[in-house]
Structure formats: C-alpha cells, structure tokens
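hey team, just a heads up i'm posting the complex here instead of the shared drive bc the drive is being weird again. everything in one block, sequence lines first with there labels, then the predicted structure for the whole assembly after. its two chains so it's a bit long, scroll down
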Amino acid sequence: MMIQLSWVDFLLLAIYAVFTMGIGFVLKESVKSSDDFFLSGRAIPAWITGLAFLSANLGAQEVIGMAASGAKYGIMTSHFYWVGAVPAMLFVGVFMIPFYYGSKARSVPEYLKMRFDEKTRGLNAISFAVMTIFSSGISMYAMGLLLESLLGWNHHFSIWFSAAFVLAYIFLGGLTSAIYNEVMQFFLIVAGFIPLVFLGLRDVGGWAGLTTRLEKVSTANGFGPGAYTHAWSYMGTPQQNPMGVEWFGLAMGLGFVLSFGYWCTDFLVVQRAMAANSMSAARRTPLIAAIPKMIFPFLVIVPGMIAIALTYQSGSSNFALPKKPDGTFNYDLAIPMMMVQYFPSGMLGLGLTALLASFMSGMAGNVTAFNTVWTYDIYQAYIKKDGDDRHYLNVGRQATVFGIVASIGAAYLAASFNNIMDMLQLVFAFVNAPLFATFLLGMFWKRATGHGAFIGLLSGTLAAAIHHGLTLPNGATAGIKGGWMGATHMYSSEMAQNFWTAIWAWTTCFVVTIVVSLLTRPKPDDELRGLVYSLTPRLSDEGLSWYQKPGIVAIGVLILILGLNLVFM
Amino acid sequence: MNLDIRLPIGLMFALFGAILMVYGLASDPAQYARSLGINMNLNWGGVMLVTGLILLYFGRRAGSKA
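-- predicted structure starts here --
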C-alpha cells in the first residue's frame, strides 16, 4: 500500500528541514572550543537538557517499536516506562549524576578511567563506540525500508539524504545542535501523536470501548479477558500473559538490571546531563525527563493497542493491521498505518515530519555520543595525548564524518547480512547486561578496584553468553535464539529469556567484582574523592525552591508512578 | 547560548499551525471522512498556532530581559 503525499505535506517537511539546518548555522557561531562542541560548553538550562535526555532515546525505532509492543502485549508494555525507565531516571538523577557531573569527566568511559583504571575505560569506550555506530546504521536501514514501503521513496536515497542532513547540522553546531533538535523533535512527536490517539480512541469508542474490544483479543489469543488491559494482574505465571514473563523476572530483569543499566550508564543519555549549566541542573535533567516519560505510554503504546483492537473488531474506519507474508501481523506498521488511516493531507505531513524528526535525532544522538567517546577516550587516550584544544575540536568534526560514513556502512551491512546484525545485537546485549553492577559498586563501594571491575565485566558478559547458550524460548530452534550449547532450560518467551540472561550477567559481575576487589590492592582514598559516595561531601539543597530539589521531585514522581501502576493494575 | 530554543520551535509551530488552518479552510470537506468527520487540519492547526505563539512570547520575553 503506497500513499501519495500532497504539496502541503511536502511543505511541512521542507519547513522542518529549513529550521533544523538554520539552527545548525546559528549555533555554529558559538562553537569555539572542543568543550563547546562535545559538551555544549556545559551551558544548557535544565529543562532543555531534560527534554533532550528523554528524546535522545526516543528514536523512531523506539516510537514504532513501543506501538508494536502495545499491539502485541497490550498495556503490559508500560512496564518499560513505569517499572523500567522512570525509576532508573530518578535514581541516576538523585544518586549518580553528582559523580558524573562533579568529577568533571567528559564522558562515561572517562569516569571509569578516573574511578577504576585505563583498561576498564578502554573496554567500555571501544564497545560503546562500536555499538553506537551499529545501532545508528540499523535504524537508518529500518527508516529506509519503511519510507520505501510507505511512500515509494528509494531507500538508498533515504539513507544517504538523512545521513548528509544529520552530518551537516552536527558538524556545524556539535552537541548543542543535536540537543536543540531533540527538543524540537519532542514537541513534534507530541503534536503528531496526540491527534492520532484522539482519533483512534474516538473510533474504538473511548477507553471503555477499547477495553471491551481488547477482551476479544485476549480471549482469542488464549488469555484471560483482561490480559491486554491489566499491567500486573496476569503476571503470576508466564503462561497467563502475552509477554510470557512472570513478575519477578520482569521486575528484576527489566526493571532493575536492564533499565538501570541503560539509563544510568549509557553515555548517549548521560551526555545530555553533562551538558547542563550547573550541578543542580544536571541532577534535574533526568528528573525533568521522567515526568513526560511517565505519560508517554499514552502516546506511543495506546495507538498500538487501538490498532490491534480494531483489527479484531473494526470500527467505523475499517482499520486493520496488515499481515506479513508468513501470516503474522506486521506490528511495526501500527503507527504508520494509523497515520495513513486517520490523517488527511496536512496532518499526514505533520505526522511524517514527527517520525522523520525522531529518526534524525535518534541518529544524531548516536553520532554525538560516538564522536565524543572517540575523541576523548580513544583518540586522546591512545593515539595523540598532547594536542591542543583546536586539534581535538577538529578531530571531533572528523569523527562526526567518520561516524556517519561508518553508520552508512553498517546500514548496508544490515541490508545484506541480516544474521550478522542479529548476532551483533546479541553480543551488545551480553556486553551491556553487567554494566550497572560495575557502576553501582564503583560509586557506592570505595573498596572496588580496577582489576575487580574489569574482570567482573568480562565475567558478566561471559555469564550472559553461557546462559543464552544453555536456554531457549519455547518453540525456537537452537542457534541465534539460544541453546547453542544444548538447551537445558526452556523459557516461555524470548523476552523472559532476555530478562533472565540480564539477571545472570548482573549477578555474576556483581559477585566477581567484589571477590576480585577484595583480593587486589585498593586505590588510595585521595584519588577517589568526588568519585565515590563515602568520600564525597553531601550536596546541599539550600537556596533551591522545592521544585528544584532532586529528592522532593523524585519522591513526587515516584508517588505518581505508583498511582499509575495501581490504576492499570 | 545565543539562541533561545523556544524561538525557532515557536516560529515553526506557528507556521505549521497557520498552514494547517489555511489548508483546512480551503480543502475539500470530503477528505475529512478519514478523520471521522472532524476537520483536523483546522482544529489541530489552531492548537499548534497558539502553542507556537506562546513559545515565541516566552522566548522573546526571556531574550529582552537578558
């Protein structure tokens, strides 16, 4: 199914492009040092870094993927927000930013170097750099395919055009350009998705109508009637809910290990907080982000739920999810197809601009994180230690070009070798899973040593691989899905297997880091001041208004999150 | 920073809103069957225009104070 855009849709797209480039040109004037380019001169107010913190993660893959999960799993998808992301964001803001920002580290790997040692930094920097390039390549490829199937645009054109576009605005304005465009994208996504949810809900007969229709979906798929509209009630055993996960695996695997691992240690998001103009603004960055994050399920998950509800029992619009050639639903098309269904020309241009903006800014986020880690943690650490600032600014601009070109390469690799990409993503998952244990011990236990951290990380990754090799989701064949060492345990779903892989990796890393640390020589206290909780003076909240105090904001958000979980129990 | 982010976003939203409203007034009402009989261009264009103007107002006010 191909759609024809009208002139008004193209007009909106063109205006967006002009504004994005215009911002890059205006900001070019303020980029004078490497600090300006990589960290926005640490001069951005909290509400902007906050929205950027949220949007850097809100790539189109996330938006489209969350709607797809909404269609597949129903309201349970909100666990990614209400159990996963939001508590992790509160934790990083209240407890971890003081060390990231206070240490004056310019990147997350650099913090590891200050806290532990060179090899721990190197391991993290190199794996992070490779991962960001591949994830930006994979999302570029996904965007190319989507635009080709929806609009008939040649996917080579989409890949090269978007790459050139993102390159230009980062090259000009550095991190500030990326952050400004992330904020713009936030507004566009909200403006594009509210009308979509509004029209969709109207079509199904409001929330009540959606609930009744989803009962049919639940029973047709062999679950209790409320399985798609209750977040917790069907989580006693994995067999009761469409996600195939029980509450413990979800709370520990997704809530604790994976979400904290991502939001608290991933430089892509932490970089936004590091760009804030003060310690208090840096701490508020993730807290401000947590507030819209809490509400986002209604914008990105509910459309997917509406899509599946209408597919089983159509409304006045006759909307239905398309199927793939193998007969299963193509969940990823939930958002684009709903836009095509409900939006007239004009609104369609707005919806498309919002999706494209989130593709672009997702890519820009990866590229800005990559060029910083490359320049500070790889180039300056191993290739040329003593250049002047001008030199590193130039290296950063070159790294931007290199990062984009490498992403394009990754996009084409994804196009021709699907299996390689699946395998790489698996390896990244193994590498990421144990990270949070290292940071937690690093920041809160001064006895943790560099050898402990390094060996702990490697063991955690190994544990993840072994667990994956020994288990298999039901119905899968041994290979990329697991079980390549002989399946000794079956999980009820791939998601349950992922969560438990993460739990094993985290626990192994945690235990091994402690044991090895106790056997090796600790760093002297003097070198750890400002890097570890017990050796850092408490920050004072005095002089801040109540809404600026991290503790109070965090408790407020926590109460709201608890409320949301109870309402959708 | 020498550019208040509210200015470009406000301006863009105001432009988007104005375009959607004009298009909504001029276009064939039949095409709003897909948006369940609601002229989304006109209505949502209005919301975007107002949002844009509010952002511009605050952006300008902050700029003139500094």
